[in-house]
Amino acid sequence: xxxxTMIEWTAYxxxxxxxxxxxxxxxxxxxxxxxxLIASFSLVTASLYIIxxxxxxxxxxxxxxxxxxxxxYVISISRQREFIVLDRAxxxxxxxxxxxxxxxxxxxxxxxxxxxxxxxxxxxxxxxxLDEAMDRMLCEKTNVDLIVAKDExxxxxxxxxxxxxxxxxxxxxxxQPFDNIEVILFKDSEFGG
Amino acid sequence: MVxxxxxxxxxxxxxxxxYLVTEDLSELYNNFGKTYFQLNGLLETGSRxxxxxxxxxYRLFDSFFEAGILLVxxxxxxxxxxxxxxxxxxxxxxxxxKTPDLFITFSRIVYPMMLVFGFYVIINGHLSPGGxxxxxxxVATAILILYYIDHDRETNIKQIVTIEKLVFFLIxxxxxxxxxxxxxxxxxxxxxxxxxxxxxxxxVILNILIGFKVALGLWTIFTAFLREGR
Lengths: 193, 230
What we know:
heterodimer, A: alpha/beta, 5-stranded mixed beta sheet, two-stranded antiparallel sheet, 17% strand, elongated, B: mainly alpha, globular
């Protein structure tokens, strides 16, 4: 087999792999695997470009298709998967000693399990020291999904989040039987504003 | 049922028209352009890479609008991403606990190499495969890796977008310089009979400008996605 036919058959094989990869991307359910498949799809496409004497296009395909696009997908998906809670109450509602065992934690854990999210509870001093009037801005401008605070006068625990989130509606449903928990929803700002 | 039948008829019609149009395609296949670029490309433009010769000299008007597409795409993404331009980057510190140490250490090794390779592809665009767009994309990927190394990094998006627009204007200015020297828009500003090496000056300048523009544009897109952490 001489060189030319060998390259021809390699091109056929790569095209076959391309079809298989496309079907796998459509059928797969796991997001992480799909990202890897998309990146390898771009790599195979780039090698096809090189076989067809187009190295310039191949460089662009590798840079965009197998580096930038998968990284953007990774960012978007990893952002979606966690539920970030800012714990401002700092008492036995969530932390008992050093362990996550309070009644608030059980509630939030149940919510996160229901939506297959990773619960990320933080009591970062930089964010907690902000004024309470900034809560709405904090929900809007940063990636904090929920703020847990304690009302000093009534002793009630307050959950603050965005009205547009379906998670907050579910949380409202779940907390209805509890008398000492109150849910406050912030109205979203205008689109593009 | 009727809708589907109509759709099938429509598709069949489109296919028939396509087939009729492509019947005398053999007249379109010729070597005039190819042989012309092979014989005169290097002498006329000073570029050994004929792709660069086409997109920076013969068809610079097209590349000008291609650069404009990225500008419009960035504007659209910023508009959709619902954030104020004046606001600093949202904190990434919440991610510090999730990124593996191995990845961070490896990124520190790879980052300078990627940056140097990106600049090499940009500057060598008229000699080897590559050019402004490809090199700019590589540089932008390197900058994205920087975010994994340094979590508390803050980016002023407004500044980046302003610089990107300025660079776009610079591209148009450099491309229009040929009006003074050659008497026509959008071509090399060096005279037609100058040497290949001096013509390459223009190609390097334009490749660097396009590379910067693409890198800044993709950087803006990343930051818009990174801030959209909800």
